[in-house]
Amino acid sequence: MSEFAKPRGTADILPEQAAEWRAIEDAARQLFETYHYREIRTPIFEHTEVFQRGVGDTTDIVQKEMYTFLDRGERSLTLRPEGTAGVVRAFVEEKLYGEMNTQKFYYLGPMFRYEKPQAGRYRQFHQYGVEVIGSSDPRVDAEVIGLGDHLLRQMGVKSFSLLLNSVGCPVCRARHREQLLAYLQPVRSELCKDCQSRFDKNPLRILDCKIDRDHPVVASAPKITDALCEDCARQFSQVQTYLDEMGISYEIDKTMVRGLDYYTQTAFEFVEGSIGAVSTILAGGRYNGLIQMLGGPDLPGIGFAGGVERLILARAAHGATQVGQDRVDVFVLALGEIATKPAARLLHELRSVGIKADSDYSGRKVKAQLKVADRLGARYVVLLGEDEVAAGQVAVRNLATREQVTIEQSELVSYLSEQVSLRF
RNA sequence: GUGGGCGUGGCGAAGCGGUCAACGCACCGGAUUGUGGCUCCGGCACUCGUGGGUUCGAAUCCCAUCGCUCACCCCA
């Protein structure tokens, strides 16, 4: 074991896996652009207050999961634990609201949370996500949800379910909170320890508690979904109408609450059963108060975020894993001291015209080098020995057909350009 | 933060108190002259995460510690 190990909860993405990562990132970007979302890149760290305000002081993320540090100027900074707060901060700071009424963004990148790692949960993990700011039209909710659905399908996740709920607005939420507290008060002492404290901080979460969920009183407690104000109820039903219209199936889950404080109205979660205990693969919701909370105008917003690591796990479970092929077009084989210089020159010439080429650097024998060429999946071997060097020629061997020709060194590039291009 | 499982060569994995720590894969070399994928032969852990203890003797038992992993809270 090495003396230096990567920090807990981080991962090295090795070349083989990097191919899949890149494929996912490329496909995600392309899909987002198809929906006319534009990429936005915000800093990986922000002033701590951005997350305290943006994510919410009562959330686990802020209370116990942030990577917070003081820089040399004594400023408190935090590695971003999620993407929305930073995007909204940028939106407000750069005054992007001046441009158009509705703006659509996407992002891709690492996030950091100080958690104990397990399957599908890491301290540095990666998310792709979208944010739509400036419209509260339920068509936008449906578009964002539909985009999540589309992305998962496109990525090869064949089965998953979509849970949908509405968590209301500050008006109906406050009203529901009163009802709920009154309702639960008599059984407060029967609740689990966590729910005792949720009682004051975030009673909505009690409904979602895995321990108390089965408690008869809790199970039949008033749901926010049933206590929505007129506006929220209409929003919720219209979102469903559009989803129906788009042929996207979902289940209403009245106990589903999103973990972040900023959510209002629409909340949704895509879950996949085979990736471990943490089955949420992509989730999001509407956050109508957030922009104003971060100092901007009173604009509505909605978005989602998905975990790349969880997507990769799900792809694996669905047999969609992609392995990178590591092939080279040409392998330059130099024999002996005398061949090294012309070989280096030819290797460089081949690469200059875009032919993927490699060579051996350890001065091994022909046999060993051919073995390497074979293993690299090379189509051609350019062989340079004493005879060839003396004659200004090279032997070019087609590894598949075993045919070998000897040509002038000056013709090599044009000869191979032609051969290699024939494959495409 | 809490609980379970596990830590043997690059990887997978046997051994679970007593000769030199199996084996497979990978890797390296060889099977006569400068020609590959198969086969055959050979090489590759003074050491079993780390530290301490028990014992005549420990990879094997005990304790601690670190790490990995799964699960809980919560979450992508």
Automatic annotation (TrEMBL):
Keyword Nucleotide-binding: yes
Subcellular location: Cytoplasm
Any one of the GO BP annotations: histidyl-tRNA aminoacylation
GO function terms (MF aspect): ATP binding; catalytic activity, acting on a protein; histidine-tRNA ligase activity; transferase activity
Pfam families referenced in this protein's UniProt entry, alphabetically: HGTP_anticodon, tRNA-synt_His
Chain positions recorded as L-histidine binding sites: 82-84, 113, 127, 131, 258, 262-263
Highest taxon, organism lineage: Bacteria
First-tier enzyme category under EC: ligase
Domain Aminoacyl-transfer RNA synthetases class-II family profile intervals: 1-342
Record keywords, A-Z: Aminoacyl-tRNA synthetase, ATP-binding, Cytoplasm, Ligase, Nucleotide-binding, Protein biosynthesis
Main location: cytoplasm
Catalytic activity: tRNA(His) + L-histidine + ATP = L-histidyl-tRNA(His) + AMP + diphosphate + H(+)
Entry's EC annotation: 6.1.1.21
Gene Ontology, cellular component aspect: cytoplasm
SUBUNIT field: Homodimer.
Similarity comment: family membership: Belongs to the class-II aminoacyl-tRNA synthetase family.
Listed name of the protein: Histidine--tRNA ligase
Gene: hisS
